[in-house]
């Protein structure tokens, strides 16, 4: 993706004054001077925190200038200036005629020109030269360069937006250490930072990490002060998730202790300890030293609280229900459910050998534990079948909020006998917006030579390859490589690169993300 910086300037027909001439002139009557330049949106309104831009997004807007001074007799003001973006000269002697045959307005932002830039760019206006007339009848084209009614500022100004503090973070399962990344834009760089980690600690670093007491939700505040002394704050809630447990439940035969609960753990730190307790009390037990899976057996019908603790002391507790089933004689060679992230659906498959009688398979689903199943759909059986009956059902009606989804299959034959399958579950991610990213790059903006790209989405399959392409904003290729790492260090690549926008393109399976980095 190529992003071009375009600045649209109105060129005067009668006034192009070389900068060196402006410097050499004696502007002794500079009773009008430039107070500031600011960036606004395409309608001429200030930007707000609700503007939905990400670093590197192209923004079409306007530039405004504010004049101050003591003069009450100034008309037909004309100005030239140079524009620098991220330290690079992009416009030489831009021109504007303001207040043509009108009195110059002081202390009020005034439109200068339209232009397009990239969100996060540092836009500076330098070598600012203005001249005006004391005669209200003189148009800009007749303003003389020979009098002293002028002003020059070579160092210039940062064309500022309002200061918008923002940040992102990386939190992994049961890991109390969280990495934060500063995303502040606007104001007048450089910035000072004051982080508050829910009253548990503070930091003044740009991209700090912090160790929390454990998993849970915390309110994080970032207060940013820019070079002009403007102070703004933002507070967001973050969540450190616990590790994931997956269960499969087999019902118990009526009036017997034949139920089972299979517990699979992922995302934590083995070995695990598993404890279970029935409600009402009567059945309990525990086992230690489990690497990734354990099956609790000989269970009667009832509710069971399952608590899993990993080697770091991280704990997960969930409640499950083992129910009675009058018939469990139906054999299942396969019953599994998988989440398909490309179609955002759950694909359910089951295999039944040697079907002896016509039947219907009713797929049931629960979004709130395993005691609130509802019919989802039906699949007709093959009837009399001496080989294998292979069946599939696709659940496309997943909740946007995601979460643990439970499935089971109820079989009803023509003799009105009912068979129940075991219960299986799938972890469904929250539905992401189009602009949400599974990759985090930090720090962004980049001021030094250390840059890290890190995966923050759902767990990746070990060995999955990711293609990374790095280029400049004008499309010049810098580096392309393939990796299976979830944390990618880019220090050697960015060390010798100039200031400006870097475009990072990540191709991960069928998905592609583009992240733009501002190098200051």
Summarize the structure.
Keywords: Signal. By secondary structure, this protein is mostly beta strands.
Question: Descriptors for this entry?
Answer:
520 residues; mainly beta; Immunoglobulin-like; 5-stranded antiparallel sheet; 2 helices; 40 strands; elongated; disordered N terminus
Distance between the termini: 21 Å
Give the number of helices. Answer: 2
Average pLDDT, rounded to a whole number, is: 81
Number of strands: 40
Strand content: over 45%
3D shape: elongated
Give the biggest beta sheet. Answer: 5 strands, antiparallel
Q: Find the structural class using helix and strand composition.
A: mainly beta
Taking all Cα atoms into account, the compactness measure Rg is 33 Å
Helix-residue proportion: under 10%
Could you list the spans in which at least 5 consecutive residues all have pLDDT below 50?
1-24
Number of domains: 4
Pfam families: PKD_4 (PF18911)
Organism: Aquiflexum balticum DSM 16537
Protein name: PKD domain-containing protein
Keywords: Signal
Structural account:
This protein has two helices and 40 strands. The protein is mostly beta strands and 520 residues long. It folds into four domains: 153 residues, no CATH class; 74 residues, Immunoglobulin-like, CATH 2.60.40.10; 87 residues, Immunoglobulin-like (Sandwich); 81 residues, Immunoglobulins (Immunoglobulin-like). The strands form eleven sheets. Strands 4, 5, 7, 8 and 9 form a five-stranded antiparallel sheet that branches. Strands 28, 29, 31, 32 and 33 form a five-stranded antiparallel sheet that branches. A hairpin with a 4-residue loop joins strand 26 and strand 27. The longest helix is centred in the first third of the chain and has 6 residues. It is elongated, with a radius of gyration of 33 Å. 27% of the residues are buried.
